[in-house]
UniProtKB/TrEMBL annotation:
GO cellular component: extracellular region; plant-type cell wall
Function: Removal of H(2)O(2), oxidation of toxic reductants, biosynthesis and degradation of lignin, suberization, auxin catabolism, response to environmental stresses such as wounding, pathogen attack and oxidative stress. These functions might be dependent on each isozyme/isoform in each plant tissue.
Protein name, UniProt field: Peroxidase
Gene Ontology biological-process entries: hydrogen peroxide catabolic process; response to oxidative stress
Positions with a binding annotation for Ca(2+) 2: 197, 247, 250, 255
Residue numbers annotated as active site: 69 (proton acceptor)
Main location: secreted
Phylogenetic lineage: Eukaryota, Viridiplantae, Streptophyta, Embryophyta, Tracheophyta
Residues annotated as signal peptide: 1-27
Family per similarity comment: Belongs to the peroxidase family. Classical plant (class III) peroxidase subfamily. Belongs to the peroxidase family. Ascorbate peroxidase subfamily.
Binding site for Ca(2+) 1: 70, 73, 75, 77, 79, 91
Length: 354
């Protein structure tokens, strides 16, 4: 499920446990929510995502990460899509998101297509959730019936984005805390980390592991030595901030190989390898189970993605259905929609721990 920035040091933030964010008790999400009002919504979203992924295979992982980054900040309400205005401080400039989020323009393209077919009906939050499920399927992963009926937030929360999104250097304890804030358990943590079965990260996020782990002047001892040398070829110390595959075996496919990589010390990020290399961790048997049986992983990934997609949702008369995903409606009418586009940085590919 970014996902999941600047440098690793700039990303360092404290996960503030504000109490578990409950699933909305009054949520009435239903896979058939748009059956009568927008019956083609799934096929419309799929067409846009499929066409984009043909040109940019990385976009599938980026859309799952974008959904993750939305849900971990005040719930799955499309707050991550809101741009800066006089009254809104965008989450896009939070440290885990700044110059790194990808897929914003893709969501806008989807919204345009959906609005043409069903004006004022489908929320941006539901579009994000559908795009994430479709990205899983197009990446060779599981499919599921997406519960729908979310509404869009009227505000964003940059401070909460800085607090809640886990970083690539988190140890297992901090990862668990970040997920517990969202009402997600250890199995959810491992399953959703499996989103790193495909996609890319920038070298900046592993340089310490390769050359100066914890200030020792040595590499991270949990890295396989052969893999270490391969990563050093891609990411020379002081060299360009290149992209590196999360999964060196099947980099563009959702499968169980991510977990097999952890078993042989080939997790790319520290937060990946922590799931298997933390002594005595209760995540180890989960990694082993997912590595040995892809269906078990897929079933858990599906369940955790649905669970994550239900975090803090707005339903009923709460929030709104935005006309344009980057602005709340009262602002949308004040701007020339044709001129609005979310800027995507040339430094795409940076990540949080998920």
């Amino acid at each position: 499920m970014k996902s999941f920035h600047l440098t690793v040091t700039a990303l360092c933030c404290v996960v503030v446990v504000l109490g578990v964010l409950p699933l909305s008790l009054d949520a009435q999400l239903d896979p058939s929510f748009y059956r009568d009002t927008c019956p083609r919504v799934h096929s419309i979203v799929r067409e846009v995502v499929r066409n984009v992924s043909k040109k940019d295979p990385r976009m599938l992982a980026s859309l799952i990460r974008l959904h993750f980054h939305d849900c971990f900040v005040q719930g799955c309400d499309a707050s991550v899509l809101l741009n800066n205005t006089a009254t809104i401080e965008s989450e896009q400039q939070a440290l885990p998101n700044n110059n790194s989020l990808r897929g914003l323009d893709v969501v806008n393209d989807i919204k345009t297509a959906v609005e043409k077919a069903c004006p004022g009906v489908v929320s941006c939050a539901d579009i994000l959730t559908l795009a994430s499920e479709i990205s899983s399927v197009l990446g060779g992963g599981p499919d599921w019936k997406v519960p729908l009926g979310r509404r869009d937030s009227l505000t964003a929360n940059r401070n909460l984005a800085n607090q809640n999104l886990p970083a690539p250097f988190f140890n297992l304890s901090r990862l668990k805390s970040a997920f517990a804030v969202q009402g997600l358990d250890t199995t959810d943590l491992v399953a959703l980390s499996g989103a790193h079965t495909f996609g890319r990260a920038h070298c900046n996020f592993i340089l310490d592991r390769l050359y100066n782990f914890s200030g020792t002047g040595k590499p991270d001892p949990t890295l396989d030595t052969t893999y270490l040398q391969q990563l050093r070829q891609i990411c020379p110390n002081g060299g360009p901030n290149n992209l590196v595959n999360f999964d060196p075996v099947t980099p563009d496919k959702i499968d169980r190989v991510y977990f097999s990589n952890l078993q042989v010390k080939k997790g790319l990020l520290q937060s990946d390898q922590e799931l298997f290399s933390t002594p005595g961790a209760d995540t180890i048997p989960i990694v082993n189970r997912f590595s040995s049986d892809q269906k078990v992983f897929f079933d858990a990934f599906e369940a955790s993605m649905i669970k994550m997609g239900n975090i803090g949702v707005l339903t009923g008369k709460k929030g709104e259905i935005r006309k344009h995903c980057n602005f709340v409606n009262k602002k949308s009418v004040e701007v020339d929609i044709a001129s609005v586009a979310s800027e995507e940085s040339s430094t795409e590919g940076m990540v949080t721990s998920i």
